[in-house]
Design goal:
The protein has about 1000 residues and is of the alpha/beta class. Helices cover about 60% and strands about 5% of the residues.
Amino acid sequence: MTASRQDLEGAPQRFVISFAGFNRPWAAWIGHRLEEHGHRVALQRWDPQRAGDLGEALEDLVRPGARVLIVLSERYFSGGSHTEEQWNTALRTVIRAHPDRFAAVSLTDVRLPAATAALEQVELWSVDAYEAEYRVLRRLELPTDRIGTETGRRGPRFPNDPPEIWGRVPRRNPRFTGRNDVIGRLREALAEAPPGAATVTLLGLSGVGKTQIATEYAYRFASEYDVVWWVPAEDRPTLRERLADLAPALGLPLGTGSYGEQIRATLEALRRGSPYGRWLIVFDGCDNPDDLTDLLPSGAGDVIITSRNREWASRHTNLVEVPLYARAESITFIRRRAQRLGGGEADQLAEALEDYPLALDQTAGWLASSPLTVGDYLTLLRRRLDSHEAVTVSEDYPLPFPTALAILLNNVRENFPDALALLRLFVFFAPGPVPLRLLREFPADEVPEQLAGLINDQIRWNAALNKLVQFSVVRLEYSDLPVDEGGGGLETVQLHRMVHNIVRDNLAEEEAVPLARAVRQVLAAADPGRPSDSRLWPRYAELIPHLEPAGVLTSTNPRIQNFLLNCLRYLMLSGEYRTCLRLAEQADGAWRAMLGDDHDQVRELSYQYGGALRMLGHFRQAEALSRSRLERLTAERGDRDLETLRAMSAHGGVLLRVARFEQAHQLFERILGAYRELLGEDHSTTLNEQNNLAAALRLLGRYQEAYDLDLDTQRRRERVLKVRHIATLNSGIACAMNLRLMGRYREALTRQEQGLRLNTQVLGANHPQSLRAEHNLGLCLRRSGDIPGAGARLRSVWERSTRVFGASYPWTLMVASDYATYLREYGDIEEARRISEDVVRGYQTQLGLAHPYSIGTVANLGLVLRAQGEREEALSLCEQALVGMRGALGDRHPWTLGVALNAAGCRNITGRLEDAAGLSRDTLRTAESVLGGEHPMVLSLQTSLAADLRALGRMEEAGKHEDDALRMLTRTLGTQHVHTVSARQRVRPYWDFEPQP
């Protein structure tokens, strides 16, 4: 023992006891014993699901300056997602840093992480109280001469000693997972109740885990009670019998022996606290408060009731709601139940069963002994939901979860017909939240016969809804969103998917048809009618989940079909392309079968279907669809009909995506001329076409013309559609992009900063158009010389795009490409290469090898290789890109000129000096005629040519080009701009290919 430890041996010390919730009785007992010896103790429950970085979490234990005693068991390590190696590393690190601050006791004989050996733990799991206290004190190097000392303050019982009376408490579940928040709320409610009124009801759906939580609470806090008594309370006779049985256990005289007399004696003994003052009574499964209210004990003990009936709230008990598992709890529980499943498979099962504990227990139990994948099993389960063979029941809950729910629903069916009628209506909405205002706005002429009395009688309606809530079949929630975001106290009813499926599957067709038809009419009546108005998008968002369950996609009613078309327009405008594609694909097949290929509704649907295909990168399908539609309309109506022009415009949009820029340009010019003649210059359709023509010009490299047209479009839209309209905001982004591409960086930056603010305010930060505005702002910042600002913006947009849309989404590939070019110059070159290679693969898969985006990103990858010193490989890629871009777009396109600039640089560094100078000279000449003498690319080409000439020893000619370039860069960009500084330092410029949206 060290000298300092000898000095401290008799002095009061501070301890933190870290324990898994499962082992709380041991932590409480050890803490009490240390306090009896004069020390200060804090109990700290270890929550592995919330411990992110293990090292930091363990360091937090020693920060108060106390010594740390860890209560070791398998539970301490098994609740989170950390590997044994991560535990070993963290423990070794923290013990090495604080060798005298950590100690441990062990409650298990199973193997623990190897690094726990450094804690020098002592075993407590098989010893009596005296020996356990002795071992703890010896391990902490404290005096052992006062073992068993009591100061008069009564503490918890030694955990290995059961309560004096332990009455038929269910077996403890070794797989009990999580629920620490619920147990914490239960404990707090019991502790804070006024004297004589410590009664708490655990409330929740069948199978949500109420009984398991009560059982775990009884075991976890057993050492704090003298009596723990379990009472099955499903019916009053059983309840009375079991409560009467407590009398002889308490040693009470039986008298005549009647149940009534025994119960009265029991309740009186509990009230007086004699012979035991610390008691816990659990009434399990009491759904009828009238059965129990007059039998509830009072006194110094605690009462826990488990129930599905919310009526207990009015019976002088505190309610603690038992929710479904949190996803992390679901995954941990599944992996304990079925150890062969990985985290991803556990998450898939939890998602499918919506974190319903009983279903997870029984399905994971089945999967534990089956070779089936989770996906195959879920398919089997959907086909055989009512089968006992598709689940594994346990002693804790011997009923299959569908049966357990069916029993609850049978009670509703037999006793509450209005509640049943309302429940059957709910299941033609989607599982999850259903806005109640939709149901309260039922069209009067569409009410099904079986609901007519209920819908028209608000008192009956509320009574039926309250019954469903009372028995935890559904729950009500209130939104905390502002009114303008679809909230403001908006009431929704929540129905779990399992309940939804069971009710829906047991409905006969003759009952289902009128209910589904009625719900479709309710949804159509709630159509806001203006999908382009972003202020109405929250209302559309709450309708979308219900389209499929209500049969909207296959309806033959024109009103319902028009409602669906508005929903699809909303999905396109709000950027929900995948949902739009899925719904449109289903509706397209159904409508073509019902109406034929040439029906107006089918054609209208095809625009949304084709738009989603185009936005998600399915260009071949989109082109085939748009070409077929255009050919059919042209044959029927000619090329001057408004519907034909619309189809022509949609086809032009696909042509832009597949890089037929000139063909699209000519098409848009024709359409714009026709629209101006037929509709006028300020019509919104004409302005849309003007926007399309400007996009084609921009992709052709005709930036000034594109800017002029976009600026005119923006000004007209501001007048016609107003400043904050989504189309007007889009024109603002286009103008800023054109300015940047023309090299007018300051103007572009100023315009785009303002544009991003407006887009974010109107559309939200993660809308595709807002992301596009922020992406362009990042590029403007980079070109203006704000390198840190550019990097932060580009990374943020890339990460959010990947998260929201996926890595292979066309927009994400574009952002990734630009972020990779930034990283090549200012960040991590290895990350730049990885992202660049991913982008090249993505574009080549989506667009083919000959598309300019595939070619341009190959050129960008070549620059990464050059930066890594792979000069010959870089030259090969840049030369390949030059040939490809010339073939795709010709010699005069700015992208071809940029690729040529890079190829010349690679020729120079690989010793092909004459070839480099020749290419630089020819490219400069072409660029001056295409872009003008002040464009940044032209100035970069001048600087590059000067470098090539210097390498050839032609100093005078090189100096002239260099001086001209520096003078123009200083005048246009300023002396401190990154381009100017680089040119002055003779850093050879390169060109980054930037895919355009």
